[in-house]
Design brief:
By secondary structure, the protein is an alpha/beta fold. The chain folds into three domains: 2-84; 105-149 and 290-326 and 340-493, Vaccinia Virus protein VP39 (Rossmann fold), CATH 3.40.50; 164-282, no CATH class. Helix content is 41%, strand content 16%. It has 17 helices and 14 strands. Helix 6 (164-179) runs antiparallel to helix 10 (260-282) and helix 16 (400-421) packs across helix 17 (448-458). It starts with a strand and ends with a strand.
């Protein structure tokens, strides 16, 4: 059997994962790399090859056969020899911190996860792992404390489960109504919500986006999260926030020349076509996954939850990103949070860069006492950074030692919670980036993967491997701020 590479450039980690997939799914007696692929020895024709991620197809006695992944990616090809990542429902909404869907699928293959088994994502974000599980017929549960993450994840899963004819009909009806929409009548909204949105949207645009939301809710009904997600993805471009800045700053560039409604009418056909094309390739799926608005510690076996066969996630990075800043407009417009709840949510996130309320007083005390019983190296790092603080360090940098301590303590708790929910021998894969901070005018690099590995080991996980993903970068918004160095941590429940 010969496996054929895709036409795009491969990074070293992708070739590595490709080899691991072949070993897990096909189990050849040998493999020889040729110019355009791999020649396998002792492989049974078609045995698992259709599931491969990093190959466009395979040749056996029946000729060339495309992999399902290649056909999915072709539905979202942008004309360049570049890996397509927005196939199926993955392109529904941009999400800061989202990881590569090919990596998620490759890990499912490497771990030999089969249809009917169950996978956990304890930081599900916008649902990358859940979607790839659904593509393979695998049950999945994701948890997240960010309401937008849960909303988007479930919207994507909904797109893969609703009858295609109903989705197409809803799209046609919404488009017809939008074409006749004058954008002048905003429905009733709470005073706080209206005040917040008018702070960032010109009055005429506010009326327009509120009218669009009302139209979608009226026509799409239970399918409205799919269409609202597409609309939400456009919000920042039409606001007075700088759409390219990770922080909330007033824009200096002009607003788009076309209307919000026109932009939505342009965006919907492409998104709906990708969803329907994916449905044709993977077949009809009953809802095979769900995202739950909670911390993973709140999932319990006595609530009917079965033991999971694998866990795959990309956790928050320690103090690396202002996770909520680029999501505030969507959280309020979608009515997921009241404006006065945003800061509380931001402060509660594991990767938060903010100390608020009682945490300002309590966290330094917890750090001093090592209340979470961190391993020596993690605790000593936090103490070292605290000791190095100088007068020139502002309030954000003065919070770094406490925030890093909270991050380590929270991740240790996560490892304990996930361990409790897994069957014996189950793998747990995490993709996490490296961090740095500057204290006292000196840069300090934080090897987050090494620290997390020790925290996991301290609560009973076996650390099997750390795989560098040195060249892995995210496409889309905020590319200039993308983490260039990441590591895949593979743990195993003993």
């Amino acid at each position: 059997m010969r496996l054929r590479w895709h036409n795009y450039k491969y990074y070293p980690y992708e070739k590595d994962l490709a080899s691991r997939e072949v070993t897990s799914l096909i189990c050849p007696s040998g493999a020889n790399e040729v110019q355009d692929g791999l020649d396998l020895c002792g492989a049974t024709p078609g045995s698992g090859a259709e599931r491969l991620t990093y190959f466009k197809g395979y040749e056996n006695g029946s000729g060339f056969n495309s992999t399902v992944q290649a056909e999915l990616e072709e539905t979202a090809r942008n004309g360049k020899n570049r890996q397509a990542t927005r196939y199926s429902v993955h392109g529904l909404h941009e999400y800061k911190g989202k990881f590569n869907p090919q990596v998620a699928k490759a890990l499912l293959n490497i771990f030999k996860v089969e249809p009917g088994q169950a996978v956990l994502d304890p930081f599900c974000g916008s649902g990358t792992t859940l979607v790839e599980c659904c593509h393979l017929g695998v049950n999945a549960v994701g948890t997240d404390i960010n309401p937008l993450a849960v909303f988007l994840s479930n919207a994507k899963l909904l797109g893969l489960s609703v009858p295609p004819c109903e989705l197409r009909k809803a799209h046609m009806n919404i488009s017809a109504r939008l074409r006749s929409f004058d954008g002048r009548k905003a429905p009733h909204s709470s005073a706080a919500r209206r005040e917040y949105l008018l702070k960032w949207f010109d009055p005429e645009i506010y009326d327009e986006i509120e009218g669009v939301r009302a139209i979608i809710l009226d026509i799409a009904g239970e399918m409205s999260p799919i269409f609202l997600s597409v609309a939400s993805n456009l919000l920042r471009e039409y606001s007075q926030q700088d759409p390219r800045d990770l922080r909330i700053r007033r824009r200096t560039s002009p607003l788009p020349s076309n209307s919000f409604t026109s932009a939505l009418l342009d965006a919907l056909p492409q998104i709906i076509d990708r969803i329907l094309s994916a449905r044709e390739l993977i077949g009809s799926r009953a809802p095979l996954g769900r995202a739950v608005l909670c911390d993973v510690s709140e999932l319990t076996a006595d609530s009917g939850m079965r033991k999971f066969d694998a866990a795959i996630t990309s956790p928050p990075y320690a103090m690396a990103l202002p996770y909520i800043d680029t999501q505030r407009l969507s959280l309020v417009w979608l009515d997921l949070l009241a404006p006065n709840q945003i800061l509380e949510l931001e402060a509660s996130l594991i990767g938060s860069r903010e100390l608020r309320g009682n945490s300002k007083r309590e966290l330094p005390q917890l750090l001093a006492a090592n209340e979470a019983e961190l391993p020596d190296q993690e605790y000593e790092l936090c103490i070292k950074l605290d000791d190095l603080l100088g007068e020139e360090d502002g309030f954000r940098r003065r919070a770094v030692p406490s925030l890093l301590y909270r991050y380590f303590a929270s991740m240790k708790a996560n490892f304990s919670s996930v361990n409790r929910l897994m069957r014996e021998g189950a793998p747990y894969a995490l993709i996490v980036g490296h961090n740095h901070t500057t204290i006292g005018g000196v840069r300090h690099d934080i090897d987050t993967p090494e620290h997390l590995s020790r925290l996991a080991n301290a609560v009973g996980w076996k650390v099997e491997e750390l795989i560098p993903l040195q060249t892995y970068r995210r496409y889309g918004y905020h590319v200039s701020n993308a983490v260039a160095a990441e590591t895949l941590i593979i743990l195993r429940k003993e």
